């Protein structure tokens, strides 16, 4: 089984992302309050839940100097770890 490292952010990027989540929550709350239809309000509330979960994830992730790159470099994959099912997957996958 391949161990995946816990994602880590640099302190600056975590702060910027968390602040963005807070601003998004405020705008979604305004939308949920001011929207004329209950469908729009429901979507806004569900979007608020998703953004709140993202903010919680960012708040709970450890911060490091180099972020994800430093964590990945310190936790190399074992030599016997299986590769991608499709060898061309690495070429097209952005993440």
Question: What's the arrangement of secondary structure elements?
Answer:
Blueprint lengths: L10 H24 L3 H23 L7 H7 L14 H4 L3
Structure description:
- The chain contains four helices and no strands.
- It has 95 residues and is mostly helical.
- α1 runs antiparallel to α2 (38-60).
- The longest helix is centred in the N-terminal third of the chain and has 24 residues, at 11-34.
- It is elongated and about 55 Å long.
What is the residue-averaged pLDDT?
74
Q: Number of helix segments?
A: 4
Tell me what portion of residues adopts beta-strand conformation. Answer: under 5%
What's the helical proportion of residues?
55-70%
What sequence of helices (H) and strands (E) makes up the elements? Answer: HHHH
Q: Please tally the β strands and state the result.
A: 0
Rg over CA atoms, rounded to whole Å, is: 19 Å
Give the uncertain stretches in residue-range form: none
The main pleated sheet reads as: none
Name some characteristics of this structure:
95 residues, 4 helices, mainly alpha, elongated
Question: In a few lines, what is going on in this structure?
Answer:
Helix content is 61%, strand content 0%. With 95 residues, it is mainly alpha-helical.
